[in-house]
């Protein structure tokens, strides 16, 4: 696997997939970024991790491209050296960026099957991040490189059926594409006390965990807490994660004089500890803004709240509404801090409804299960690698 992220504290999707294969007897190498203090080589839960000497360092479009190119060259060099010794049956490349798949050109020439895993649609991601129109030059270039990358790969997987259909409309054949959802590992993400009822006493604890960036709307959640601070004195918010919005979020909390209500937690947690943090929250929050990118994603954090039986409030986006209704998740209008505050207000006052959300969301867990999905994913890898070196 090749991924422009840290491992294991980077892309949970990559860790789940790598460990699912390792548990089934595959030898799995992950080539990834190297963060401060991390070892060059390490074995994590049966997965060999090889870190190349580069890290995330930029947010502007031009510097982001340079960062991608630097990692592309270093990862390609490492992959090609290792491929000469190991002759991989399958090389799986995770985007962003899509063109990272071409780092596997030597293994492909040697007979390896190439699997491109599209976590995010790059044209929509770029349009969201840099406020570009759908017909801008940058978006058109990204669509072109997406098409080339998908053609180079033997198979393409993505995270939702909606995005798979988008890729098919852009030229990827149905037979060459499939969905591997970002489901929580149900062996770890399962409540220790499924019958736990929300407490009517003590603090009312909100939780956001994940990347801290503007498109995920964490500032709306901070503003919602400000709107409710006098009505609900026991309201508390934990924001767990990292990202380019951290400094501005801290400043906003200080400006609104609610920094005593908000805990910014940057501790690196292993997966079981993260699951416990989620279970201890009274309400998980997914405050995404609506744009061409966020409207199509099914947030991993929402699936983890659901798996842990933690009630959730989430933005009313197309992807979320495809899988959840108002009886399973409290939905609010994207971008509207007042509407988000109203949903929190209602749930704080109506504890039976809070418990009902948790019970109803269990329908999602019954239909979508990582153990079943991971088996299907492993079968896909096995099929691609059959007859390969």
Commentary on this structure:
The protein has 389 residues and is of the alpha/beta class. It folds into two domains: 2-182 and 369-383, Rossmann fold (3-Layer(aba) Sandwich), CATH 3.40.50; 204-367, Rossmann fold. 43% of the residues lie in helices and 16% in strands. It is built from 14 helices and 14 strands. The strands form three sheets. Strands 11-10-9-12-13-14 form a six-stranded parallel beta sheet, sandwiched between helices. Strands 1-5-6-7-8 form a five-stranded parallel beta sheet. Helix 3 (105-109) links the parallel strand 5 and strand 6 (113-118). Helix 4 packs antiparallel against helix 5.
Question: What distinguishing features does this structure have?
Answer:
alpha/beta, Rossmann fold, 2 domains, 5-stranded parallel beta sheet, 14 strands
């Amino acid at each position: 696997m090749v991924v422009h992220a840290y491992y294991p504290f980077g892309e949970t999707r990559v860790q789940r997939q790598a460990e699912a294969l390792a548990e089934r007897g595959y030898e799995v190498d992950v080539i990834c970024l190297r963060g401060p203090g991390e070892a060059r080589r390490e074995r994590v839960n049966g997965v060999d991790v090889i870190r190349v000497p580069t890290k995330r360092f930029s947010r502007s479009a031009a510097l982001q491209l340079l960062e991608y190119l630097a990692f592309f060259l270093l990862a390609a060099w490492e992959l090609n050296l290792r491929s000469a010794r190991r002759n991989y049956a399958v090389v799986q490349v995770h985007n962003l960026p899509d063109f990272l798949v071409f780092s596997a050109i030597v293994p492909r020439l040697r007979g390896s099957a190439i699997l491109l895993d599209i976590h995010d649609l790059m044209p929509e991601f770029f349009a969201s991040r840099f406020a570009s129109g759908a017909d801008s030059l940058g978006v058109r270039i990204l669509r072109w490189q997406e098409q080339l990358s998908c053609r180079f790969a033997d198979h393409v997987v993505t995270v939702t059926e909606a995005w798979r259909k988008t890729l098919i409309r852009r030229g990827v054949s149905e037979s060459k594409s499939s969905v591997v959802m970002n489901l929580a590992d149900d062996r770890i993400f399962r409540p220790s006390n499924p019958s736990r009822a929300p407490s009517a006493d003590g603090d009312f604890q909100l939780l956001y965990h994940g990347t801290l960036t503007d498109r995920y709307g964490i500032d709306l959640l901070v503003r919602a807490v400000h709107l409710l601070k006098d009505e609900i004195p026991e309201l508390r918010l934990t924001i767990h994660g990292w990202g380019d919005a951290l400094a501005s979020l801290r400043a906003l909390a200080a400006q609104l004089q609610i920094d005593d209500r908000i805990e910014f937690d940057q501790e690196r947690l292993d997966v079981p500890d993260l699951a416990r943090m989620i279970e201890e929250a009274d309400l998980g929050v997914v405050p995404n803004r609506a744009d061409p990118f966020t409207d199509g994603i099914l947030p991993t954090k929402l699936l983890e709240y659901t798996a842990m039986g933690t009630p959730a409030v989430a933005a009313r986006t197309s992807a979320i509404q495809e899988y959840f209704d108002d009886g399973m998740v409290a939905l609010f209008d994207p971008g509207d801090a007042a509407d988000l505050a109203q949903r929190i207000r209602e749930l704080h006052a109506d504890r039976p409804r809070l418990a009902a959300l948790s019970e109803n969301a269990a329908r999602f867990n019954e239909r979508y299960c990582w153990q079943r999905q991971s088996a299907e994913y492993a079968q896909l890898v096995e099929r691609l690698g059959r007859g390969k070196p």
